[in-house]
Design goal:
Elements lengths: L13 H18 L26 H11 L9 E8 L4 E11 L2 E7 L17 E3 L3 H27 L10
Antiparallel strand pairs: 1-2, 1-4, 2-3
Length: 169
C-alpha cells in the first residue's frame, strides 16, 4: 500500500492580489481626464490698486532684477516680471524685460500677460516671474513623464524576483 504524502503547500496569493490592486490603481490614475489647457489669459496676481500708484524709478527694478534675474524664464530674449510694491502689498509693478546682448531693457506694462511661474523660485522673492504657455505645457509634460517613470520603476522593482543567497550545506 502506498503511503499518501500530504499535498504540497499551496503558495499564498497575497502578492497576486496586491499586484492586481496596484495595477488597477495605476490604470485608474492614467484614465483620469487631463487638466484643461491653460488659456493665454493669465490669472490676475492681485486686485488692482484702489489709488493710482506712484511710478517707481527704473533704477529700482534694475537693481532688483540684477540680483534676482537668474530665475527669469526667457522666450525670444523677452520675459515679464512683477515687482513687490509695499504701498499696495502686492506684486503690482509689472515690467516686460528685453535682453539684448548683456543689457536688459525694462518697459512698464499694466499687467502680466503670461502664466505665473510657480516652481523653481525661492519663497519670499521680490519678483514674480512668468513663462509662456508653451513652456508651461512642456514643464507639465516633463513632470508627468517623470512621475510615470518613477511609478513604472517602482513596479519593476516590486516584480523583480528576490535575490536569495544559497545556503551552504
Amino acid at each position: 500500500m502506498d503511503e499518501e504524502s500530504p499535498p504540497p503547500a499551496k503558495p499564498t496569493q497575497v502578492p497576486s492580489w496586491l499586484m492586481l490592486g496596484f495595477a488597477l490603481g495605476a490604470l485608474c490614475i492614467l484614465a483620469l481626464p487631463k487638466r484643461a489647457a491653460v488659456s493665454a489669459e493669465p490669472r490676475p496676481t492681485e486686485a488692482p490698486p484702489a489709488k493710482p500708484a506712484v511710478p517707481r524709478p527704473v533704477s529700482t527694478i534694475e537693481a532688483v532684477f540684477a540680483a534676482w534675474g537668474k530665475y527669469a524664464v526667457w522666450s525670444d530674449d523677452t520675459t515679464e516680471v512683477a515687482l513687490w510694491n509695499a504701498d499696495t502689498n502686492a506684486y503690482s509693478d509689472c515690467y516686460e524685460v528685453l535682453r539684448v546682448g548683456e543689457n536688459d531693457y525694462f518697459r512698464t506694462i499694466t499687467r502680466l500677460t503670461r502664466p505665473i511661474l510657480n516652481h523653481g523660485v525661492p519663497e519670499g522673492a521680490p519678483l514674480v516671474y512668468t513663462y509662456t504657455v508653451r513652456q508651461r505645457e512642456e514643464w507639465l509634460r516633463d513632470v508627468s513623464t517623470e512621475n510615470l517613470r518613477a511609478l513604472s520603476d517602482g513596479v519593476r522593482q516590486s516584480l523583480a524576483p528576490p535575490t536569495v543567497e544559497p545556503q551552504k550545506p
